[in-house]
Amino acid sequence: MNRMNMLLAQEQTRAEVLADDPLWLVLLKAVVLFAFGVVMTLFMINWERKVVGRMQHRPGPNRNGPGGWLQSLADGLKLAFKEEVIPTSADRKVYWMAPVISTIPAFTAFSVIPWGPEVSIFGERTYLQLVDLPVGALVVLAAAAIGVYGIVLGGWASGSPYPLLGALRSAAQVISYEIAMGFAIVSVVLYAQSLSTGDIVDAQRNGWFALLLLPSFIIYVVSMVGETNRAPFDLPEAESELVGGFHTEYSSLKFALFFLAEYVNMVVVSAFATTLFLGGYMAPWPLSAIGDGVLNTGWWPLIWFIAKMLLFLFVYIWLRGTLPRLRYDQFMRLGWKVLVPISLGWFVIVAGIRAIRTDGGVSTTQILIVGAVAIVIIVLLSLLIPEKQVAEDANKIPVTGSGYPVPPMDLQVPTKPRRKVSAGKSATRSELTGSTTGKEADDGNV
């Protein structure tokens, strides 16, 4: 009987196994994922401060806890007990809902990420995944898109101009970079022949998509940094321009929720990048060959998955510590004139490769050579055309010595000094304002 149950279990798909999970196991997975998101936020804040401090020859947090690793927990407790100040002009209902709308989709995206293969939890056979949907890749993309509504509503409901400007920037930013990110994901889906995140991981057993679809991988990495409003693309929070961005008027726990949503989104897109391009929970090549793949079974894959995810999170910190913030026109030009054309062209190439391989008659080497040449041509065109357009626009707009375009000056500086007013004599309006009538100009009283 046990042998028969094992044979039936082997025939079940990932989705069917997860559908048979009892309620207690589903709740356990949900609680663990929520706790993982919160703990990773506390860890990331402290890790980021330590790494950036190391890059800048500073010690970083070193007071609270062993090695300063409890500093984030202390900051969180401090935020919880801070006084909450709500602007009198704020829309209170929307003001309260905005951080919640930002946080919930971030945690929702965790549900479709495959963290590991089939394991046994308290005697129950299951996968290290909450749910495997046929459109799992779209769920992550949709959750990232919905989260920006919280930023937009928070900036609008604050009743202040600077948060509103930050919210509008965020909306434009997400629209611009989601298109390129969507094309990168579609290329992976086209190659894996499935939208299921579990199937995408299984399709990388013979090679990671980061190598097979290198342009998609690069486009996704750039887009995920822009999608999460992180440096050098943190234009909605540009302190030098907008005080603090969309959350300027937030304090206490509502500000903490925005902070939590930002870091959880970083973890989500990093985990999704691991799933799409780095083989998910499968061990790297030297380790995967040990003992006929024994390190790809049991709980070992969870370690590989978290290690790959931390690699992407380190890239976030590295970028923040090295690159300055872009100007807004540079940022939008990169999204619309570079990433979108390249991602669209690469998607066409991937579709052609899949069609040719299906029909047969062409080797993989020939396909890769033709694809590489096409990519080089697209990159060169995308880089040359914007530069030419910028040069043409610069010739039409008067510029200062710094080279930045400025509007024409409407103020005319007088060429002659203003007439001095003698002591005891009141100045006329024309003398104070510097304006002259026709008669005064004829008499030379300028």
Automatic annotation (TrEMBL):
Top enzyme category: translocase
Listed InterPro entries: NADH_UbQ_OxRdtase_su1/FPO, NADH_UbQ_OxRdtase_su1_CS
Catalyses which reaction(s): a quinone + NADH + 5 H(+)(in) = a quinol + NAD(+) + 4 H(+)(out)
EC number, UniProt record: 7.1.1.-
GO biological process annotation, one example: aerobic respiration
Region (Disordered) location: 405-446
PROSITE patterns: COMPLEX1_ND1_2 (PS00668)
GO molecular function: NADH dehydrogenase activity; oxidoreductase activity, acting on NAD(P)H, quinone or similar compound as acceptor; quinone binding
Function: NDH-1 shuttles electrons from NADH, via FMN and iron-sulfur (Fe-S) centers, to quinones in the respiratory chain. The immediate electron acceptor for the enzyme in this species is believed to be ubiquinone. Couples the redox reaction to proton translocation (for every two electrons transferred, four hydrogen ions are translocated across the cytoplasmic membrane), and thus conserves the redox energy in a proton gradient. This subunit may bind ubiquinone.
Full protein name: NADH-quinone oxidoreductase subunit H
Organism placement in taxonomy: Bacteria, Bacillati, Actinomycetota, Actinomycetes, Pseudonocardiales
Gene that encodes it: nuoH
